[in-house]
Amino acid sequence: MAGEKKTFQLDKETLVIIGAVCLVFLWTVDRIVSSKDPVEIVLEAPKAKQAEQVETKKEVNKANVPLATGAEPIDKIFIQSGCAACHTIPGIEVARGREGPKLELGTNARKRLADPNYHGSAETEWEYVQESILNPGAFIVEGYRDRVMPRWYGQKLSAGALDKIIKYLLKIEEVT
Ligand code: HEC
């Protein structure tokens, strides 16, 4: 009898301990979740705002585009230069433009060079991307119009900024 009672008491203690552990666990989870909330809001708010700005800025105006020195992070170059307003650029959250083709030059630069309609002067993929930024009229991607992409990027992108852009774009491969 006594033995049975002891077992019952032990079980009760165990239950209390398990209950306490659960409470501590729930409290910890609650703390983690609630401490994350404000951080997430802070991180997401500017992103949403940037997307809005890019969305409403369809017309890229030469006077409003600052000179990119190449010291800026790549996403900043794409946004401040207006590329993000017209192009979807994988890896750049706010670049969802549809005026121009999705930039997947890791796959497409090769295709353009091999296109029988290509009559530009680029011989390498690097040169193709450079030419399509500095002299967009050299080759018009099928399905898009000439004279939509600005022709003054040579004046707004330093050699360093241009190199950074080309390097980034050539890494993007088409995902099918
Ligand atoms: C006002 C809209 C607009 C802006 C701003 C713009 N582009 Fe374009 N872009 C286009 C259009 C339209 C085409 C397709 C026609 C053509 O080939 O010229 C194009 C074509 C391209 C191509 C060739 C793509 C391919 O698949 O062959 C590249 C590369 C490119 N743009 C890069 C850029 C970069 C980098 C910037 C910013 C420095 C930029 N564009 C800014 C509209 C734009």
Overall SS class: mainly alpha
- The number of distinct structural domains comes to 2
Mind describing the biggest β-sheet? none
* Unreliable segments of 5+ consecutive residues: 39-43, 52-57
Backbone shape: elongated
Radius of gyration, Cα only, in angstroms?
Answer: 28 Å
Terminus-to-terminus distance? 73 Å
Strand content: under 5%
Number of helices: 6
- Annotation, overall tally of beta strands: 0
What's the helical proportion of residues? 55-70%
| Mean pLDDT over the full residue set | 85
Order of helices and strands: HHHHHH
Bound molecules: heme C
Task: Note down, in words, how this protein is organized.
By secondary structure, this protein is mainly α. It is elongated. It has two domains: 1-51; 62-170. Helix 4 (105-114) packs across helix 5 (125-134) and helix 5 (125-134) packs across helix 6 (159-170). It has helices at residues 2-56, 74-80, 83-86, 105-114, 125-134, 159-170. Mean pLDDT is 85; it is low at 39-43 and 52-57. Bound molecules: heme C. The site of heme C has 29 residues, from helix 3, helix 4, helix 5 and helix 6.
